[in-house]
């Protein structure tokens, strides 16, 4: 199973906004969705999803970004990805 | 992760980026031609780093305006000003959305004098997609963006946009901007923006652009607008508008729809202000 950001999602991270140090992303399903805020580890997982990949690849990418141990974050990443799938901003393929 | 409540307190910059994507999606779904202007639509190097915009500006093909309005309102945007009251140039109207903030819809760009539909074609001819909020949004090319920013600066009495859009351009790029201004019949406005307005003293719009550059009283403004109005009918419409209180702006100022009493009071203030300007002129002369 591979995961990727859904086609109808627009998003912006603090890098685009010259924002602060806390990883932050705002996203929405255009044109009728509500704004959604992802902060901290949530944003890291989102950025890891930007390139798409299997759950393992997304977890490894998130771990690489934060210096965390893959085993330690595996369950949290899986939970968050599940939630993102449920609200329709991430697609399973 | 949190929805909605946090989103509504999202920083303006985030809202603006996402709102550009929202507008473009609406346009994509209905084959509406729009160009995204200013803010995150500006190409790198054409504005100061870190500068943020507080609203979304889009130029719509005039013949597609009705469809865009319908699309915006279908997702909860509310019109707050109309084209006749939005600005001196009657070129834009504003819509508000609780999540996405302000969207300014332009049907033409102040300073451009050729037919608005034709002007859109010229600006769209060399447009290219630029990702805003990871969404492809068509934006004018670098030359057109330079011209748009300079014209905006001219209308705003000079802004820092000029440093990047004009002073930062090399002679060849400036020549391209002049050529585009000629094609769009925007040479007087361009001249106002870059300090060459006196070369156009005989132009009907000279006084108007001088007013924007140097400021002046309301009487100066109306005299300039009358001089710039191309037809007798346009002059008559202007005079009528001059006497009328701008209900859209009054509503925004009051934070509620104005009552009949509010309008009467404001009308009195306008008349008093006009009389006071007149009498101070008489005293000066």
Classify the fold: give the CATH topology of the domain at 1-140 in chain B.
Answer: Beta Polymerase, domain 2
- Major beta sheet, strand line-up of chain A: 5-1-6
Stretches with pLDDT under 50, minimum 5 residues of chain A: none
Span between termini of chain B: 67 Å
H and E order of chain A: EEHEEHEHHE
Q: What does this entry look like structurally?
A:
The complex is a heterodimer of chains A (93) and B (285). The mean pLDDT of chain A is 93. Chain A has one domain (2-92): Arc Repressor Mutant, subunit A (Orthogonal Bundle), CATH 1.10.10. Chain A has 4 helices and 6 strands; from the N terminus they run E-E-H-E-E-H-E-H-H-E. Chain A is globular, with a radius of gyration of 13 Å. In chain A, a hairpin with a 6-residue loop joins strand 3 and strand 4. Chain A starts with a strand and ends with a strand. Chain A is α+β, with helices and mostly antiparallel strands and 93 residues long. With 285 residues, chain B is of the alpha+beta class. Among the domains of chain B are: 1-140, Beta Polymerase, domain 2 (2-Layer Sandwich), CATH 3.30.460; 245-285, no CATH class. In chain B, 54% of the residues lie in helices and 13% in strands. Chain B has 14 helices and 8 strands. In chain B, a hairpin with a 2-residue loop joins strand 7 and strand 8. In chain B, helix 6 (142-155) crosses helix 7 and helix 6 (142-155) packs across helix 8. The longest helix of chain B has 25 residues, at 260-284. Chain B is globular, with a radius of gyration of 20 Å. The model of chain B is unreliable at 3-7 (pLDDT under 50). The A-B interface holds A 5, 8-12, 16-19, 26-28, 30-32, 34-38, 42, 80, 83-84, 87 and B 1-4, 6-8, 10-11, 13-15, 17-18, 21-26, 29, 40, 49-50, 52, 71, 75, 99, 133-135. Strand 4 of chain A pairs antiparallel with strand 1 (2-3) of chain B. Chain B: This is 2-nitropropane dioxygenase. Chain B: InterPro entries: NTP_transf_5. Chain A: Pfam families: PqqD. Chain A: This is PqqD family protein. Chain A: It comes from Nocardioides cavernae. Chain A: InterPro entries: PQQD.
């Amino acid at each position: 199973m591979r995961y990727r950001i859904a086609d109808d999602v627009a998003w912006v991270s603090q890098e685009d906004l010259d924002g602060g140090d806390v990883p932050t992303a705002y996203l929405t399903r255009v044109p009728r969705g509500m704004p959604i805020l992802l902060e901290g580890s949530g944003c890291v997982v989102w950025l890891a999803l930007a390139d798409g990949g299997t759950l393992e690849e997304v977890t490894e990418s998130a771990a690489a970004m934060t210096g965390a141990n893959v085993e330690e974050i595996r369950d949290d990443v899986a939970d968050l990805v599940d939630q993102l799938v449920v609200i329709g901003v991430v697609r399973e393929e | 992760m949190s929805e909605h409540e946090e989103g509504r307190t999202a920083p303006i910059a985030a809202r603006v980026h996402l709102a550009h994507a929202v507008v473009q999606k609406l346009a994509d779904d209905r084959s509406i031609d729009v160009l995204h202007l200013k803010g995150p639509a500006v190409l790198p190097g054409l504005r100061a780093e870190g500068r943020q915009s507080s609203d979304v500006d889009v130029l719509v093909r005039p013949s597609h305006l009705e469809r865009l309005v319908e699309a915006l309102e279908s997702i909860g945007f509310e019109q707050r000003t109309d084209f006749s009251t939005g600005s001196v140039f009657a070129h834009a109207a504003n819509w508000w959305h609780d999540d996405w903030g302000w969207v300014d819809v332009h049907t033409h760009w102040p300073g451009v004098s050729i037919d608005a539909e034709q002007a859109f074609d010229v600006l769209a001819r060399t447009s290219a997609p630029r990702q805003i909020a990871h969404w492809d949004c068509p934006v004018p090319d670098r030359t057109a963006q330079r011209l748009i920013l300079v014209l905006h600066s001219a209308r705003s009495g000079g802004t820092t946009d000029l440093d990047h859009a004009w002073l930062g351009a090399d002679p060849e790029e400036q020549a391209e901007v002049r050529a585009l201004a000629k094609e769009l019949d925007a040479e007087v406005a361009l001249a106002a923006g870059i300090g060459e307005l006196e070369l156009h003293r005989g132009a009907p719009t000279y006084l108007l652009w001088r007013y924007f550059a140097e400021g002046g009283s309301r009487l100066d403004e109306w005299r300039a607008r009358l001089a710039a109005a191309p037809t007798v009918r346009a002059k008559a419409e202007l005079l009528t508008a001059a006497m009328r209180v701008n209900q859209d702006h009054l509503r925004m100022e009051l934070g509620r729809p104005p009552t009949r009493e509010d309008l009467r009071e404001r009308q009195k203030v306008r008349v008093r202000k006009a009389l006071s300007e007149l009498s101070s002129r008489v005293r000066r002369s």
